[in-house]
Amino acid sequence: MNESTSFQTVKSHFMKTGFISICKRAIPVLLFSFMASLSNPAAGQTDADAKTEGIRLYQEKKYIEALPYLNAPDAQKDPLVQSALGNMFSMGLGVDVNQEKAFDWYLKAAKQNNAMAQLYVAYMLEKGLGVRKNDREAFNWYKKAAEQNVPNAQYKLGTLYEKGIGTRINLKEALNWYRKAAEGGLSGAQVKLGRLYSEGIGVKRDYTEAARWFYPAAEKGDVMAQTALAFLFENGLGVQQDDAFAISWYSKAAEKGFAPAQNNLGYLYDNGIGVLRDYTTARKWYEAAAKQGNVEAQFNLGQLYTLGHGTVQDYGKAAEWLEKAAAKGHPKALNNLGMASLDGMGVPMDRVKAGEYFRKAALLGNAHAQYNLATLYVQHPDALTKDKRSKTDALALQWFKKSAAAGHPAAMAYLADVYTYGKLGQRPNRKLAASWKQKADAAEEKRKRAQTITPLPRTEAARPAKTEPVKPVTKDFNPNDRDWLE
Question: What distance in Å separates the CA atoms of residue 456 and residue 407, rounded to the nearest whole number?
Fold first, then answer.
């Protein structure tokens, strides 16, 4: 909070207490007498009374009135008073923001074993607020607070152990402190612990245990926990598969505006999983998530416009959303834009541009793009390079092999032709041809059994993309955030 903001806070307080209106009518002698009484607690009042009155006024958010009582010499020796003064200077409550003074007061209280003050001291040392940044000292103070069962400190200590900040990486200790914070009811720690179990980080993967920790956080309204729990129910991981529960939890998070949940809920409506297929509702949720920058939703929305599902078919709008996803490196969006550029669907027909999109997606490991890039080398090598045909044949062969290795049936079938007829500078080889033909047939059969929708061999599958189980965004502790003051 800057000086101007601090003034507004004080002004707002005066307006609420009516102090300004009183001053308009007060004569100078009365005003002086009133200010003097604030500066000096009533005669005969004990130091204990000053502390009690100061804390009472502070808790009532009457910071200006509280300040002289809190500033009483003996009252300032009390850790509760010291912590309160630290808060006031940290947030500009009745005083100008001064992080150096805030740190000094927090440190006085922390040295008297005040757990919350220890948490604040740790945070300020970690961030370099009012004091020189010192990760090791921050770690030490977080540990002191954590050992006094402060869930936020326990959670932070787990993070430091996990990342090796101020200490060595120790996943066992990280898990231990995350668990303590989770058992203390901190939803962020519960989500974190659920994620560690679901991904097998520092512990054996256990979806049942993950669900056990996601659930209480989800019940408390944590959107990340709700989304992760929904994913487990959708896929039957650690819990009995239940589409209805998946939809319910996704809906709770989606209605709160959480983009990953919105995308995944759209996915269920798009595919008719647990609900009647409804492209219009799918588009609604994809659009909500896409506007927030969710890359999977941007791709999915582009697909709906391409196919005319839940909306009028519009290649131009499809290209707009695919371009947003492609700009973030989404492989499927890059590949589909390459196809759009080849055919002039919503974008100008441009083989060179198509090649650029295919190459980017191919380098990201997209099997469709690898196949398309190889095909472009065969059919239109001039769009990619000015190299001699022998070199473009070699590049085409390289990308066909990469695509085939990734399981693309059409790439395998093409390689079978290469060795059957001696294409791309290769001699006929019956053994290799038969091998690739067998692999192609097996891959195609597997695709059919999985009932994957693939309209054409060279196009990206129309099946929408899901947002994977959400990874919690670590929220740094901020002493100005009252949610941390439990």
Answer: 15
Residue 197 CA: distances (Å) to CA of 163, 204, 358, 401? 17, 7, 37, 37
- Alpha-helical (H) ranges within 18-114 are 19-25, 28-39, 47-59, 63-70, 79-91, 99-111
| Helix, strand counts (H, E) of the chain | 25, 0
- CA angle, 402 as apex, 401 and 408 as ends, to 5°? 85
Q: Say what the pTM is.
A: 0.79
Three-state SS string over 130-170 comes to CCCCCHHHHHHHHHHHHCCCCHHHHHHHHHHHHHCCCCCCC
Q: Tell me how far the alpha carbon of residue 18 is from its chain's centroid.
A: 45
Other C-beta atoms closer than 10 Å to the C-beta of 241 total 12
Structure tokens at 51: 């502390």
Q: How far apart are CA 238 and CA 232, in angstroms?
A: 7
Please list, in sequence order, all residues whose beta carbon lies within 8 angstroms of the beta carbon of residue 18, skipping any fewer than 6 positions away. Answer: none
Residue found by looking up tokens 């740790």 in the block: 122
Query: What CA–CA distances, in Å, run from 340 to 81, 385, 413, 467?
Result: 67, 20, 24, 24
Site of tokens 């390459």: 338
At 57, the amino acid letter reads: L
158: left (phi over 0), alpha (psi -120 to 50) or beta: alpha
Instruction: Determine the Cα–Cα distance for residues 2 and 181; give it in Å rounded to an integer.
Output: 33
Diameter of the chain measured on Cα atoms: 110
Phi-psi region of 291 (alpha: psi -120 to 50; beta: other; left: phi over 0): alpha
Confirm if 194 and 217 have CB atoms less than 8 A apart: yes
Distances (CA, A) of 456 to 313, 323, 336, 340: 18, 21, 12, 14
pLDDT over 60 at 463, yes or no: no
Tokens of 328: 């973030």
What is the SS3 assignment for 27?
coil
Distance CA 212, CA 194 (A): 7
Q: Are 290 and 298 spatial neighbours (Cβ–Cβ below 8 Å)?
A: yes
The predicted-structure confidence for 332-389, as pLDDT tens digits, reads as follows 999 999 999 999 999 999 999 999 999 999 999 999 999 999 999 999 999 999 999 8
